[in-house]
Amino acid sequence: MCPILKLGLALVSIIGILQAIWFALLVEPTNRWTSQLVSWQADQPWLSWVGVTFSIVAALICIALLFYATFKRSTTSQLQVRGERGKLTINKQAVEKTVKHAVLEKHSVSTVAVNVKLRKTQEAATAKVKATMTQPQTDWAGESRAIEKTAKAALEHCLGVDVKKVNVALTPASRDQKTANVI
Predict the structure, then answer these.
(1) pLDDT per position in the chain (183 positions), as tens?
(2) What are the residue boundaries of the structural domains of the chain, listed by start?
(3) Nearest 5°: CA angle at 23, between 21 and 29?
(4) Shortest CA distance to 21 belongs to which of 47, 60, 75?
(5) What are phi and psi of 138, to 5 degrees?
(6) Kind plus residue range of the DSSP H or E element containing 162
(7) Residues 131 and 167 sit within 8 Å (Cβ to Cβ)
(8) Which CATH superfamily hosts domain 76-171?
(9) What burial class does residue 126 get, using C-beta atoms within 10 Å of its C-beta: 0-12 exposed, 13-18 middle, 19+ buried?
(10) Shortest CA distance to 77 belongs to which of 130, 117, 25, 20?
(11) Number of helices (H), then strands (E), in the chain
(12) Can you tell me whether residue 85 is helix, strand or coil?
């Protein structure tokens, strides 16, 4: 989550918490509030409990959003690596394309989809690789481990940072298109 979105969620959460407190005070008025509101509320005593319940639920939701915005890890679409010669910016889409071509070169797969997550603060990466096999496989686990190693090596070579995790999802080769469907 980018920092500007985190800031926006935090502001909305704080406004929501203040709104919940204001709504609770409106439904359960103090002596300073108008007498009309007090008399109307006295005629319907259940209304104050409903209002307080709604306020508590709204406040809990806003507190949960505030914690989510505060503690969610920041991801980025670019990774900046600093060295003695300056700063290098690496684009996420270029890394995904490099990993895709590395998997296509070394394994018998037809289509590959790669999703890389770059973490700004830890200078680390994770990846999800989805591939469709071109040939029937008997050793799915071995093939997925081999694709995982290839993707991890390509990521480490491109980025020069730790690769925390690579998830591989394989789908079997599709049926031959010439096979007739029997109904």
Answers:
(1) 678 878 877 877 887 787 777 676 666 666 655 555 567 667 877 777 776 777 777 788 888 888 888 887 666 667 666 667 887 777 878 888 988 999 899 888 888 899 888 766 666 778 899 988 887 767 788 888 998 999 999 888 887 777 888 999 888 876 554 544 454
(2) 3-71, 76-171
(3) 95
(4) 60
(5) -105, -30
(6) strand 162-171
(7) no
(8) Cation efflux protein, cytoplasmic domain (3.30.70.1350)
(9) middle
(10) 117
(11) 5, 6
(12) coil
Q: Which residues are within 8 A (CB) of 9 and not within 5 positions of it... i.e. 6 or more apart?
A: 65, 66, 68, 69
Cα gap 167→72, rounded to integer Å: 21
∠ Cα 135 148 169 (to 5°): 60
Calculate helix-pair angle for 92-106, 140-159, nearest 10 degrees: 140
